[in-house]
Amino acid sequence: MLHQKSKIIKKIFCTNCKKRIYRSIGRMNENLKLRHNFYCSKKCEFQYKSKKQLLVCENCGEFFTRSPHAFSPHNYCSRSCAVMVNNKKHSKRKAEFKTCMSCGRQFKKSMGNLKFCSIKCRVEAKRKYTPEQLIDIIKLTAQELKRVPAKRELKIARACEISFGSWNNAIIAAELQPNRSHSQRMYKCINAKALDGHLCDSISEVIIDNWLTANKIPHERNILYPGTNHKADWSVNFGNRNIFIEYFGLANDSPRYDRSVRKKKLICEKYKLKLIEIYPRDLYPEICLDAILKNEFKKLGWRK
After folding, report:
1. Which one, out of 26, 79, 147, 167, has a CA that is 20 to 30 A from the CA of 208?
2. Would you call 252 helix, strand, or coil by DSSP?
C-alpha cells in the first residue's frame, strides 16, 4: 500500500518562480512534514534562499546583485567602474623627486626618508676608504709582515670585498700573490716561503715557521711519521726526542682531513711521540703561539 501510495503524482507550484511542477505524494508529504519548500530546479532554490539584492551601478547603470553585508554608500558593478568614477573625482598625484646625496641624480621619492637613489650609492657614501687607500694599506701591511697578509688579519677586508668584489681581487690589485682560498685548500697548494726559506702550504704555516725561527728553535719541515706515509708539518729535536708540531687548519671542515688527523694522533699514541696541535683559533684574530709553544717547550727543558 505504501509503495503504491508513493507513486501517486500530485501537482504543486515552485516557491520561487511559481512554475507548475509534479511530485509524488510521498515526497510532498515528507516536505510538508519537515516544512521544506518546493522548487523546480537548483537554480530556483538558490535564488530563493539567497539574500542578495538587485542594485544599479552608479557608473554604467547595469543591474547586479550583492549581499547586504557588501553594501557601501556607493555601489558599482565592477572594479573598473569604481576606478573610472574615482579618477574623475580625484586628479592624479604627481610623483615627488629627490636628489641623491651620492651621485646627484634625480629620483622618485618612495616610502621612507630615502637619501640615495640606489643601494650602490648608499654603500659608496658610507665607504670610509677609497680603493687607492685600501691598496696602500694592504701594501704597507705586507711590508711590515714581510708576506702577503691574510684576510683575517685586516679590518678592511669587508671594505675590500665591496670595492674589488673579493679579497683576492684586492690582493691582485695591490700587485701581490693571493694566498689559498677556502675552495682551494684541500686540492691546490700555493707555496709561501718563510723567513728561513722553508716552503709552507699556507700563510698560517708561514706564521708558525717564522715564530720558530724568531725564537731560534731548530726545526725541519714535512717529516714522516714512523711506519706511514703521513708527514708532520714540523719536527723539533730536543736531545734524543723528536717533537711533532701540526697545524690542523681544516679541523672540523673536511671529513677526509679529520680522518687524517685521527690517524696521526693514533700513531703518536702508538709510538709515544709528543704532538703539539695548533688550530686557526690560536692564530686568528690574535696570534697566541707564545702561550702554546713556549709552555710546551719549557716543560721539555727549553730555555730561550
Report:
1. 167
2. coil
* CA atoms within 13 Å, Cβ hemisphere of 276: 20
Least confident of 113-127, 178-192, 247-261: 178-192
In the chain, domain spans? 1-50, 51-82, 124-178, 180-304
pLDDT at 186 over 70: no
Residue 8 CA to residue 26 CA, distance in Å, equals 8
What pLDDT score was predicted for residue 247? 92
Whether residue 273 contacts residue 242, with contact meaning beta carbons closer than 8 Å, is answered with yes
Q: CATH number of the domain at 180-304, out of 3.40.630.10, 3.30.450.20, 3.30.70.890, 3.40.1350.10? A: 3.40.1350.10
**Taken in order 280, 282, 286, 287, is the CA torsion positive or negative?**
negative
Quote the strand ranges of 7-165, DSSP E. 9-13, 20-24, 53-56, 63-66, 97-99, 106-108
Q: What is the mean pLDDT of residues 208-230?
A: 89
Q: What global pTM score does this model have?
A: 0.44
Summarize the confidence of residues 74-79 as an average pLDDT: 90
- Span 171-193, average pLDDT: 65
What letter would DSSP give residue 183?
T
